[in-house]
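#dry-run=false #mode=assembly
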Amino acid sequence: MRDLLGPYVLGALEPGEEREVEEHLEGCAECREEAQDLRLVHERLADLANATQTPPAGLKERVMDGIPRRETRRAPFVAAAAAVLCVLAVLGVLYAPGIIGREAVASATLKPTDIAPRAGGELRVRKDDPNARAELEVWGLPRPGKDEYYELWFGKEGGRMSAGTFTVDAEGRSTLYMTAPEEVSDYQQVGITLEKFPREPRMSSAKVVLGGELQES
Amino acid sequence: MSGDADEVLVRRVAASGDERAISELYDRYAGLVYGAGVRYLRDRALAEDLVQDVFTAVWRSAGSFDPSRASFATWVYRITRNRATDLIRRHRARVRTVGGEAYPEPGEEDPTGELSRSFDVASALSRISPVHREVLVLAYFHGLSQSEISRRTGTPLGTVKSRTTAALRALRENMSHDEDRGSADE
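#status=ok
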């Protein structure tokens, strides 16, 4: 009889079986207690089913496409990579085969916010089969604090995509080559935010330091 | 579902950027995050933004997740609540800026704690055995009767009934484990 307590609390037994279980429960305190416990679990599961909605088709793909790839995820790595790039740029040996010289398909002039009024930047997107690449040059940005980093975003109505994270040198400059959305023409804005690695993430902590309209070339 | 615990999956995300692990966590929690978005933001497009924000945050901050302080479900619940608040604030600011249509007041966030409990139940559901999970998912999420589950799975009806009981017991044990660690909304 105890094996029927699950479907009993679900209300899923045939009327005859249900009566049998109820008669048994009247004389069995142990089963009554278990039925009470299982009814609570049943109610919690019903609440979960009620709170759950199937996300639209394609959302998972967009989420997976939107997560920054690991190589651009951690500030220490990015800081090291940016430092190397800065050194190479200073030495005049920056070389990016297949990117420099290709015609830009979109570009943006990045304008400052109150956080860094003298900062600025230029972004050019070039097709580099099979992917698009963003060439970003920024200047005048404050040096990020401990656990802080900059992040480049492509924005459109209803969503945004991270193109990666970076830091700047002591003079607030950086020149980087980052991932751009394949369908860059779908995006209208670009922006750079100052982000923080929090113990508990809050998007509101991000501050926009540069922003601009993306223009197709 | 792989059957790996949430905490194992999030460790893989933190350690090696394992995309299969974040995909698995999405399968476990996206429906709940999206449902919370639809319910509390009252806007399906914003609810989609919420799902995107939450799983991007999980990906980015997996390294800061500390399983000794809270379960993964608790952590995701808190991220969901914070992100939903941010989305409401940002959306209101944008409406004020561009003079768009009045935005309906969103519902009060989880006043009874039901959403927080649901994250715990989703977590417990991911930890029970696949055969137990299957029978509960078919009954509660697909609305199948015991006879329909029997036909769908090719399992004798009597076995489906006893398995349903065993599955609820297993879930109760796992929920007790969560309660010992504290609820999602403490």
